Amino acid sequence: MQLIPSYIFNADTFRKNHDRLLSALRKYYGNVRLAYSMKTNYAKPVCDEALMAGAYLEAVSPHEHNLAIKYGAPKSSIIYNGVCKNVSSIMHAAAIGSKINFDNLSELRDFLASWLPENKTYDIGLRVTFDIGNGINSHFGFAGCDFYEAMSLVRERKNVRVTGLHCHFSRARDLASWKKRAETMILLATQNIPKEDLKYIDLGGNLYSPMPSEMKDFFGVVPSFADYGTIIGTLFKEAFPDESVELILEPGTALVADAVSLCAKVLRIKDTGSKRAAILNISKYDLGAVQTTGHVPFTVYGSSNQPQSTYDLFGYTCMEDDILARDYTGSLAEGDIIVFKNAGAYSFSTNNDFISPAIGMNILKNGVLWEASKAVTVDEIARRFQN
After folding, report:
1. pTM (2 decimals)?
2. Residues 288, 289, 295, CA angle at the centre, nearest 5°?
3. Which of 185, 368, 173, 339 is CA-nearest to residue 252?
4. Among 262, 331, 290, CA closest to 7
5. Could you tell me if 306 and 173 are in contact, meaning their C-beta atoms sit under 8 angstroms apart?
6. Is 237 helix (H, G, I), strand (E, B) or coil?
7. How far apart are CA 41 and CA 372, in angstroms?
């Protein structure tokens, strides 16, 4: 096992999350498949576990689409979304049978202007956006007249057809937002795509993950997987009693957030006045999205006999706002280990070589812990700049 700091991916927790969410939806609507959002945490062990669970992989760039292929994902099990798709990657995805959801008229026109053999039919999807009541005027997806123009452009081609719609909304994890999302998507799909062509409706992601009670206080009302399943599954069963249309969700945080912990070590302790400062060998940026809550659950492992004191936990960077926790009261010593929970979302994917090298990952599965990737080395960084 690699040295600390390191991420620890609990594959069993990830699989449990996947299966619980899928079961919650299938309780009401049988034709459901999850698509794991690679951008949330692109580590190969995470994507491998998603594929073994039967999920799609959702890629949002040529880089991620190629990575999904490199990871061995079945070509038809890749969903290709995003705003930075180039023509060559779109054509490659179309050729191998990935599900492509087009984002705008420009990339759709580029695709339609490319050579598409007339002896093959190309099924595509469109990402749409609409007012969901979260105060965000999204620039992602087709809206208003652009959507109808896109449908018109496709109808002009004999061997291209729209067979699905996709959406994704940020800052809209509540049940009311999901109800409106599902209702509107069902309406748009059934009113604009012939019944014989409609194959799937992809509702995207942005669901709450399982979390401890002290974190729930930050978010307020946190729906469970069962709550999401009831709202979404019931609406789809009413709309498609024969379950002929595949319902797709693209969870990232919901599956991986609490499946990853971040292990750190106390480097130094110093007095700063009324409190003491503990300097760790990670930064708050290594925690990913959860650090914005201001309270990340953690456990201290040490054998210090020092009297209890109050500590602020700081990261290693030279940034004054690099604070991992405030007002921890306990016994703490240099060399103690601190394990932060719920560090799976937008952490491994975004941690970098700022001041210290990017952190590696260990895997915990069936009670066995092993190394999956090492921290980035100085030589690897230097080689990027060699001629």
Report:
1. 0.95
2. 95
3. 173
4. 262
5. no
6. helix
7. 14
Give 291-323 as a DSSP string.
GGGS---EEEE----SPPEEEEEE-SSS-TT-E
For residues 113 and 107, give the distance between their C-alpha atoms in angstroms, rounded to a whole number.
Answer: 10
Cα angle, residue 157 at apex, residues 151 and 161 outer, rounded to 5°: 55
Q: Strand 309-314 to strand 323-330: parallel, antiparallel, or no bridges (unpaired)?
A: antiparallel
Say if residues 14 and 8 touch (Cβ distance below 8 Å).
no
Sign of CA pseudo-dihedral 321, 6, 16, 242: positive
**Residue 262: enclosing H or E segment and its boundaries?**
strand 260-271
Q: Rounded CA gap, 335 and 223, in Å?
A: 39
**Among the listed residues 236, 150, 141, 235, the one whose alpha carbon sits nearest the alpha carbon of residue 193:** 150
Cα maximum dimension of the chain: 78
DSSP classification of residue 367: T
Query: For residue 9, which amino acid is it?
Result: F
Ordered per-residue pLDDT tens for the chain, 387 residues: 457 999 999 999 999 999 999 999 999 999 999 999 999 999 999 999 999 999 999 999 999 999 999 999 998 999 999 999 999 999 999 999 999 999 999 999 999 999 888 889 999 999 999 999 888 888 999 999 999 999 999 999 999 999 999 999 999 999 999 999 999 999 999 999 999 999 999 999 999 999 988 888 888 899 999 999 999 999 999 999 999 999 999 999 999 999 999 999 999 999 988 889 999 999 999 999 998 887 899 999 987 777 889 999 999 999 999 999 999 999 999 999 999 999 999 999 998 999 999 999 999 999 999 999 999 999 999 998 976
